[in-house]
Amino acid sequence: MTKRFLSSVGVGLCLTISAFAQQGAAPARGAATPARGNGAPRGPKAPEGPAPKMADGKPDFSGLWQRPYVPDMTKSSRGGDQKGMAELPFTPWGEKEWKAYDAEKGDYTGACLPFGLVRSMNSPDPIQIMQNKTYMSLLYEQNTWFKVIPIDGRPHRKGTPTWFGDSVGHWEGDTLVVDTVNFNGRTRLDTIGHPHSDQLHVVEKFSRPDLGHINYEITIDDPKTFTKAWTNTRVFTLRPDWEIMEYSCEENNKSFWEGRIKVPKYEDQ
Asked: What per-residue confidence (pLDDT) applies to 18?
């Protein structure tokens, strides 16, 4: 398991600004120390006070959020802010996919392909959330990706399967429930490489108990890969002392290595 994890990190992330480099660079954001490798956050005490509300009375999740790094969704952090499921309920197909995975033989993140929804949510870098009554937008520092989620109760769209899937949200009291389907099946759930198929169905629940925290729950339902749905929970911490940083991953650009476009020359080169 350790070898698999190290290989996955090495191939999946070290070709660009790695997840661990992001952690190491975090003190530049302010006085804080970033998330530990086991997922437990360190830093200033979270802001205190009641959860802010939108004009319609619903919780406002806007802000820049530190979240636990979850390289392995079966592990729980020692700090208790992330709880995994120790034994995943694999189907025979899912177990075969899991046992066959070897990052040294190629991991899509090493080619800077999109991480996908679940693996992006498991990353250690911050998320900027922006919200109005119609949409909630997740701005991932990781590779400067973003996801815009309608939260007005509309149904799913029909379209080409994608890396991040099609997400729609609705409110259950003060909890925002985000339902995502229509994945292309080309990603992994986490850094260590737990598999899923194109039948993946993800349900995320966001609640804000106070000013400084978001309680986050993610449920994985994939009948091709797992015999039953399973859930992972974690806590995000508001970081008003941070600002989102630029992040670019351009490794393995096909047009570069096939010679159709050339590496630009800059004055300082």
From this structure: 37
Could you read off the pLDDT of 10-61 as tens digits, one per residue? 334 433 333 333 333 333 333 333 333 344 456 788 999 999 999 999 999 9
Q: What is the pLDDT of residues 76-113, one digit of tens each?
A: 988 778 999 999 999 999 999 999 999 888 888 888 88
Encoded amino acid at 226, one letter: F
Return the amino acid letter for 36: R
Are residues 242 and 65 in contact, defined by beta-carbon separation less than 8 angstroms? Answer: no
List 234's β-bridge partners, or say none: 82, 216
- The rounded distance, in Å, linking the Cα atoms of 223 and 116 is 19
Query: Residue 45 in contact with residue 109, Cβ under 8 Å?
Result: no
Catalogue all structural domains in the chain, each as residue range(s) with its CATH number: 2-41+50-242 (2.40.128.20)
What secondary structure letter does DSSP report for 196? -
3-state percent breakdown (helix, strand, coil) of the chain, nearest 5: 20, 25, 55
Task: Specify whether the CB–CB gap between 244 and 141 falls below 8 A.
Answer: yes
pLDDT at site 7 = 38
| CA 74 vs CA 107, 128, 194: distances in Å | 20, 26, 9
- Cβ 164 vs Cβ 146: under 8 Å: no
- By the 10 Å C-beta count (0-12 exposed, 13-18 middle, 19+ buried), 30 is classed as middle
The Cβ of residue 171 has, within 10 Å, a number of other Cβ atoms equal to 14
Residue 54 has a pLDDT of 97
